[in-house]
Specification:
The complex is a heterodimer of chains A (58) and B (184). Helix content of chain A is 66%, strand content 0%. With 58 residues, chain A is mostly helical. Chain A starts with 8 loop residues before the first helix and ends in a 6-residue tail after the last helix. Chain B contains seven helices and no strands. In chain B, helix 1 runs parallel beside helix 4, helix 1 packs antiparallel against helix 6 and helix 2 runs antiparallel to helix 7. The chains are: A mainly alpha (58), B mainly alpha (184). Chains A and B meet through helix 1, helix 2 and helix 3 of A and helix 1, helix 5, helix 6 and helix 7 of B.
Chain lengths: 58, 184
């Protein structure tokens, strides 16, 4: 039995590529930028969210 | 599929992703530049009216995503022809990305892009803010391809499809909250 449990690469990759993760990061950035009155960053992240909402649409 | 694990073209997939992303960024930037030029037309309107209209559109977007109202979208209901990618892989990926990035050459089925475009039109932000929002749009579209590529598994598409209703609803609400906090 191994001394320390390690996460299989497949599971780690699957977790890191979870489709909801980019949304969470961008949403935090957009709202935080809005609260800090950082208009450029807020609009850029809101734009990125809009782009991500078309995920898979071609 | 451009970023399928079953890729067999004689060009490295990472290169194609880079060129595709560049096209997306250029397309989004171009559309935003046009929006910025047009946004001057909204400048004479009182600020409160413009903010109210932006938030009303954002609420409508949330309601549409939730299925509470039906709003036909003025989208270009066509797909970019497959042969764009078959002639020359790199140039095709650039063109494909550019057309997707503009947001006017193909389907735009979610509400958030319309909310952001109308928000930029009505709020008449500075050129840098508007253009970076467009570049952000292209980057947001590129995230899908990049994560899909990084997953190295076709199963990722199933996960994305499963989460799409949640994603579009959550994005609509987030856009509403962010714009309300920023503009009010």
């Amino acid at each position: 039995m191994p001394a320390a449990e390690t996460l299989p690469a497949g599971r780690l990759r699957r977790g890191l590529t979870e489709p909801l993760l980019p949304f969470a990061a961008l949403a935090l950035l957009a709202v935080a930028a809005a609260a800090a009155d950082q208009a450029v960053l807020c609009w850029a992240s809101v734009g990125a969210l809009a782009g991500y909402s078309l995920s898979g649409s071609v | 599929m451009l970023f399928s694990p079953g890729w067999r073209a004689p060009v490295r997939q990472g290169q194609v992703l880079a060129v595709f992303t560049l096209g997306l960024l250029l397309g989004g930037t171009l559309t935003a530049a046009v929006l910025w030029l047009l946004s001057g037309l909204a400048a004479p309107l009182p600020g409160a009216v413009r903010t109210g209209a932006i938030l009303a559109v954002a609420v409508l977007g949330v309601a549409r995503e939730a299925g509470w109202v039906r709003v036909p979208l003025p989208q270009n209901a066509r797909q970019i022809p497959q042969d764009v990618l078959q002639r020359r892989v790199r140039r095709g990926a650039l063109q494909f990305g550019f057309e997707l990035g503009t947001g006017v050459r193909t389907f735009v089925s979610a509400s958030a892009p319309y909310v952001v475009a109308l928000g930029l039109l009505l709020s008449h932000q500075g050129p840098v803010t508007t253009i970076l929002a467009g570049t952000g749009f292209g980057a947001g579209r590129a995230v899908t391809a990049a994560v899909r590529y990084a997953s190295r598994h076709d199963e990722w598409d199933d996960r994305r499809v499963t989460r799409m209703p949640l994603l579009t609803n959550a994005i609509g609400i987030t856009v509403l909250i962010a714009l309300a906090v920023l503009l009010v």
